[in-house]
Amino acid sequence: MSQGARTLRIRPISYLIIPARLASTRLPRKLLLRETGKSVLQHTYEAASRATRPTGICVAADHEEIARDVQSFGGQVQMTDPAAASGTDRIAEVAARLENVDIVVNVQGDEPEITGESIDQVVGLLEDHPSVPMATLGTPITAVEQLNDPACVKVVFDQQGKALYFSRSPIPHPRDDINSWLAANPPVFFQHLGIYAYRRDFLLKIAQLPQSVLEQVEKLEQLRILNAGHTILVGVTNEPTLGIDTIADYQAFVSRIRHG
Questions:
Q1: pLDDT, tens only, 133-165
Q2: What is the CATH number for 202?
Q3: Domain span at residue 242?
Q4: What tens digit of pLDDT does each residue of 89-115 get?
Q5: Alpha-carbon distance 249 to 24, whole Å?
Q6: Which residue(s) pair with 139 in the sheet?
Q7: 3-state DSSP assignment of residue 28
Q8: What distance in Å separates the CA atoms of residue 45 and residue 33, rounded to the nearest whole number?
Q9: Cα separation of 31 and 23, whole Å?
Q10: Cis omega before residue 28 (within 30°)?
Q11: β-strand pairing of 154-157 with 163-167
Q12: Are 190 and 78 contacting, i.e. CB atoms less than 8 angstroms apart?
């Protein structure tokens, strides 16, 4: 190579997997709800397909009903063990079959308003930080109701963007004058969004880690990673996605779809 010539960096190959489970605790069979004419899962699949960095996308299904729904709208689907303990275990099962993939993206099936830009952003975090094994996103919280809602998972991170902790409780917990902290610029509170990017080899390893006590208490899988001493890089986005956990969430989504 001549003096001054540039070294070209080969972009890692990324692939997007949507773990999809038929049963759900708070809203049974929510991925197959279809008041809009499309299932929640189809909305999520189509939204995720707008990302430009992943080279492919599929649903990791636990049940034939899920698989049939995906096939009905022309999506790609792979069956996984119905007894898989978590969505992470489900996508790891599919990732083990993808030998040529470097980065695996996990988008939850109940995120029908996920943006392609958010997916590309989380992939870009791993592309730009080769030593980091895992990345996710957070978005500012400005409403006290959201901050206090256990269904809204919060994240705090250091100056390098490395996650310090995830919790269903308000973190950091304001000792006083909560409204001024909610209005602070730069923001103080961040909601964790349900999207992850992993190095494939790392994903296969963490699927074998035992649950930590923190994970068991908070019911948050990402705490298994922090407890084991690994790094999760957090990117900030101002485009929050709205997951569907309750019937009220779903009705609000239907209303947004119908009214544009």
A1: 999 999 999 999 999 999 899 999 999 999 999
A2: 3.90.550.10
A3: 14-258
A4: 899 999 999 999 999 999 999 999 999
A5: 14
A6: 191
A7: coil
A8: 14
A9: 9
A10: no
A11: antiparallel
A12: no
